[in-house]
Write a structure and sequence with these properties.
This protein is of the alpha/beta class. It has 2 domains: about 15-45, no CATH class; about 85-250, Uracil-DNA Glycosylase, subunit E, CATH 3.40.470.10. Helices cover about 40% and strands about 10% of the residues. It has helices at about 1-15, 65-75, 80-85, 110-115, 120-130, 160, 165-175, 185-190, 200, 220-225, 230-250; strands at about 15-20, 25, 95, 100-105, 140-145, 180-185, 205-210, 210-215. It has a 6-stranded mixed β-sheet with strand order 3-5-4-6-8-7, with helices on both faces. Strand 7 (about 205-210) and strand 8 form a beta hairpin. The longest helix has 23 residues, at about 230-250. The protein is globular and about 90 Å long. Bound molecules: uracil. Uracil (URA) binds next to helix 5.
C-alpha cells in the first residue's frame, strides 16, 4: 500500500524507474536515460513536497485570500457580545472586486433576519440613492463596520466596533476599492478616528491610503431629516464625477 502511494506521488512528480533493489530512481539519472551520468550517485530520491493551502478558520482568518474565504472564516465569530444575540452574521454583499465600497454602521432587525446589509427602510433609500447615480448593489460592495446587530439597535461606540473593525479593514484589503462612500459618523470615525465629525467632513475627499473616501450622511438619518437629502445628493454626485473620471482614465 505504501509503495502504491509512493508510486503515485513519484509519478506525478517525475518519470522514474526502479533499480534492482526496488528503489526508485528518477529516469533522468538511470541507465535508460539519454542523460545517464554514472558519476552522479543518487542515493536519495529528491523530495518535492506539494504546497498545501492552509485551511482558513477563525484562528487564522487574516490569511484569507478571497472574500468568500474570509466570510467562511469569521461568520461564527463570538468576539463581542453582539455575536451572542445575533440571528445572522452580516458579512456584506455585492461585487467583491468593486471599485466602490459603501460602509454603513451595523445591521438592524431586517438585516439580522436576512444576513444582508441595508435591506430595511434605510436600505431602500440607499438603493434609490445608488440608482440616481447609475449604480446598484451588484456593481458596488456594501458592508458595515459592525457585522452583528447591536441589541435595541444601539449606535455602536468605539468599544463596540473595535473588535469588529479588523474584519472591515481586511475586506478593504481584499476588495481594493478605488472609492469608499462612508455612510454616517460611525463609518467615518471607525476608519479615521473619533475627532472626525460628519457635519464637517461630509462631501469632502479624504485619503484612506490610496483610496478616496467620501463621507456622507447615513440613509437612516435622511429618513428622519429629509432636508439633509440635498447634501447627500451633492456628495454622491461628487462620487459619481470622480468615479466616471477614473473609468475614463482607465480607458485612455
Ligand atoms: N444601517 C446600517 O448602517 N447598516 C445596515 O445594514 C442597515 C442599516
Amino acid at each position: 500500500m505504501q509503495n502504491l502511494i509512493k508510486e503515485k506521488k513519484y509519478k506525478e512528480l517525475l518519470e522514474y524507474i526502479r533499480d534492482e533493489e526496488g528503489e526508485y530512481i528518477p529516469l533522468q539519472f538511470s541507465e535508460k536515460s539519454k542523460n545517464f551520468n554514472p558519476k552522479i550517485n543518487i542515493t536519495e530520491i529528491p523530495k518535492i513536497e506539494k504546497q498545501e493551502k492552509p485551511i482558513i478558520t477563525i484562528e487564522n482568518w487574516q490569511e484569507s485570500s478571497t472574500m468568500e474565504e474570509l466570510n467562511n472564516a469569521i461568520k461564527d465569530c463570538l468576539r463581542c457580545k453582539f455575536g451572542q444575540t445575533r440571528n445572522k452574521f452580516v458579512f456584506g454583499v455585492g461585487n467583491p472586486k468593486a471599485d466602490i465600497l459603501l460602509v454603513g454602521e451595523a445591521p438592524g432587525a431586517d438585516e439580522d433576519m436576512k444576513g444582508e446589509p441595508f435591506v430595511g427602510k434605510a436600505g431602500q433609500l440607499l438603493d434609490k440613492i445608488l440608482a440616481a447615480i447609475n449604480l446598484d448593489r451588484n456593481i458596488v460592495y456594501i458592508a458595515n463596520v459592525v457585522k452583528c446587530r447591536p441589541p435595541l439597535n444601539k449606535t455602536p461606540d468605539e468599544d463596540d466596533y473595535t473588535p469588529c473593525l479588523p474584519y472591515l479593514k481586511k475586506q478593504i484589503e481584499l476588495i481594493k476599492p478605488k472609492f469608499i462612500l462612508l455612510l454616517g459618523a460611525v463609518a467615518l470615525q471607525a476608519l479615521f478616528g473619533k475627532t472626525y465629525k460628519i457635519t464637517h467632513w461630509r462631501g469632502k475627499v479624504i485619503n484612506y491610503g490610496d483610496i478616496i473616501a467620501i463621507p456622507t450622511y447615513h440613509p437612516a438619518y435622511l429618513l428622519r431629516t429629509p432636508s439633509a437629502k440635498k447634501e447627500v445628493w451633492e456628495d454622491v454626485q461628487l462620487l459619481q464625477k470622480m468615479y466616471l473620471e477614473f473609468k475614463q482614465e482607465k480607458k485612455d
